[in-house]
Amino acid sequence: MRGGIRSAFFILVLVLAGGPALAAPEAPASRAVEWKSGDDVFAAAEELTIDREIAGSLTAAGQIVILTRDADIAGDTWIAGRRVAVEGEIGRDLSIRAQEALVNGRVKGDVSFYGLDLALGPDARIDGNVTYYSPSAAEIDRGARIAGEINGNAFEPPAEKEPRGVTRERWRENHMREQWDGRGLAAPGYHMTAGGAVFFGALAVLFALAAPVTSRRMRDGLAGEPVLAFGLGLLWLVGVPVLIVLVAITIVGLPLAFLLLLLWPLGMIFGLVATLAASGEYIASRLRETGKGTLGRIVGIILATAIIWIGISIPVLGALIWLAVVALGIGLLYIGFRTIERTPL
Q1: pLDDT grade, residue 295 (50/70/90)?
Q2: What is the mean pLDDT of residues 25-47?
């Protein structure tokens, strides 16, 4: 999830600057799309081949995904597909979600695999650990070199023949249990550093100054419709991961699942910023003369940031406060941007 939050951060910066660029593929027949966020690359296609250097991280999805020997990824790599082959060099961690996967290159970090069949070829060089979740044991060539530990989570085959699909459903249940135990789709940590508080407070100030009307609408929503705002935000936080799982079942839905996977942590970031902006506006409105104007907004947001930062830092209770703040902010965004003016008859 740390990689997902980092990607969401880059996307947030691009959104504030004017939005990410969408590059159409050179060959229309490939039906490929590619996003770039700084040095990071996000790509999806029916048959995707990466054979170049990428200075940042790579997130890829498709039926067939191949990283050739010419591929050199400096950051983390996350791949989802039906068949995956990695023969290039990965500068950090490699995470694969696929039916079948072959790793036959250099990985300078850890390797994690969720799927049916994993194979490590004779040229595989892995500096970290290998962790896999599949119905069968991984096939590891004698020439493969793994510096860390191999953590296999293969399921025992049934003693008697079971109906078709039972093994897959058992694997899916265990996979989702692991996801919600603190990996994959689990929410990020509930700790906020002083630097993080300053950063999100600064974003809230920029938002309030750039969109004062929307900020006031969110303030009114915070005062008059907090239950509606919290309900809408909670629906986003719970509903999007469920929707990701549902659409990712089919290969056709993988690009949509890929986009939702990026939007989910992005919604958390915007939700936190929205709550800080709306709370700051509300506090400023209570400061009478001191709270008027630009200075009043800034003072209100600083006070709101400090209060929320202290609340999130409380052991155990901080988790609930973090959830409430993010969910409330996502709902306030809807209230702030919805059309409230009616055309007179």
Answers
A1: confident
A2: 72
- The pLDDT assigned to 291 comes to 60
The number of CA neighbours under 13 Å toward the Cβ of 24 is 4
- pLDDT of 183 strictly over 90: no
Tokens at 15, concatenated: 């959104």
Task: Show me where the domains of the chain are located.
Answer: 23-170, 194-337
What is the rounded distance in angstroms from the CA atom of residue 239 to the CA atom of residue 304?
A: 28
Tell me if 176 sits within 8 A of 276, measured CB to CB: no
Q: Which pairs with CB-CB distance under 8 Å and at least 24 residues apart come from 236-243?
A: 236/267, 236/327, 236/330, 237/187, 237/264, 237/267, 237/268, 237/323, 237/326, 237/327, 237/330, 240/264, 240/267, 241/185
Structure tokens at 149: 């530990």
pLDDT for res 197? 83
Given its phi and psi angles, is residue 48 left (phi above 0), alpha (psi -120 to 50 degrees) or beta?
beta
Check: CB of residue 276 under 8 Å from CB of residue 304: yes
Q: How far apart are CA 39 and CA 56, in angstroms?
A: 4
Token pair belonging to 228: 């509606």
If you count them, how many residues does the chain have? 345
Residue with tokens 């969401």: 8
